[in-house]
Write a structure and sequence with these properties.
alpha/beta
Length: about 325
């Protein structure tokens, strides 16, 4: 059923969302950056995905953190400030915060304002005395990240927390740039705890991004519903299908929305044509090998100190330290 084409009053045609959508749909390979998945409904759906049987990264990373967080905390020391990058539901966060001695403050950064504040309220019920400053920002935007981290206290260790293998949404060069930007802002001697997925088996990967219940498909299609709602889009959601594919050349899972028919779609009064089987590329999830991620981290000015992994060795939680 085609969604409403009304435009929300708080979303202007020259917003970053509009710019990214219009530019992305104008390319030879249509694409939309994956950060725009995360309106409130998209954030809810992603949290549902993390609990699916096929989606191994979340439960694997939680198990790794539980087994190793005391060792990680011992490296960091007393009085730390934790900055969580792309905090989402902050479900893994209490594992780290409880382990740190004399925690100074917690700064979650996320693009979805409503979801961020709901997550913070829930976290504060678990940790009533927590000093928390939520920041609504797109962490992939260096200016937004700089503004978000401008309020960091001068005292105590600074810790970037970047779980969920979200670094895999970035190709190697942007990954290096992001880690370099975060390191520059956190400063010399800062720490980074980051989840990295190295799984390469398509039989494991593809179901993780195309589950039997269709939750990931709904998550992908929700992007079109958001465009309809916020940018006067006329996407008929039933005219597109979700597809996950593994690109062996680049070592990444790709998510696409596939047009089922010849059709035209309007967004902010611009018309975009689709052929049968033409796709909108909505996400990459790079599966960096240990050696490749080590190279990326070092090139961005970080030294790997520890890598904690599951028994299979396919998922790792790295502890990095920023070079002087």
């Amino acid at each position: 059923m085609q969604q409403s084409a009304s435009v929300r009053s708080d979303v202007l045609p020259d917003s970053r969302f509009a710019h990214d959508v219009l530019n992305g749909l104008s390319g030879m390979q249509k694409s939309i950056p994956c950060q725009w998945f995360y309106d409130y409904r998209g954030s809810q759906l992603f949290e549902e995905i993390t609990g699916l049987a096929e989606y191994y990264p979340t439960r694997t990373e939680i198990a790794i953190l539980r087994a190793n967080v005391e060792k990680i905390a011992a490296h960091i020391g007393v009085g730390a400030t934790v900055v969580e990058i792309g905090s989402g539901s902050s479900r893994k966060t209490p594992l780290l915060l409880h382990a740190l001695s004399q925690l100074r403050s917690y700064i979650p950064v996320d693009i979805s304002e409503e979801f961020l504040y709901a997550s913070v309220r829930e976290l504060k019920t678990l940790m009533p005395g927590l000093q928390c400053t939520p920041i609504v920002a797109d962490f992939s935007d260096p200016r937004a990240l700089r503004s978000a981290l401008s309020m960091l206290p001068k005292e105590g260790p600074r810790v970037g927390f970047f779980p969920g293998s979200t670094i895999g949404n970035f190709a190697p060069d942007p990954s290096r740039a992001l880690l370099r930007n975060v390191g520059d802002l956190l400063g010399s001697g800062a720490w980074m705890i980051i989840g990295v997925d190295s799984t390469q088996d398509p039989a494991v990967l593809v179901p993780a991004y195309d589950d039997a219940r269709g939750v990931t498909a709904e998550f992908n299609l929700n992007l079109l519903a958001r465009i309809n709602r916020e940018l006067a889009g006329t996407f008929a959601l039933e005219a597109f299908a979700h597809e996950a594919r593994f690109d062996t050349q680049h070592g990444r899972i790709e998510m696409h929305l596939v047009s089922k028919q010849i059709q035209q779609v309007r967004v902010l009064n611009r018309v975009f044509s689709f052929n049968v089987d033409e796709t909108i590329h909505t996400e990459n999830a790079y599966k960096y090998s240990v050696a490749h991620f080590d190279e990326i981290a070092r090139a961005a000015g970080w030294t790997p100190i520890e890598r904690c992994s599951d028994d299979a060795g396919g998922f790792g939680v790295f502890l990095l330290q920023r070079n002087p």
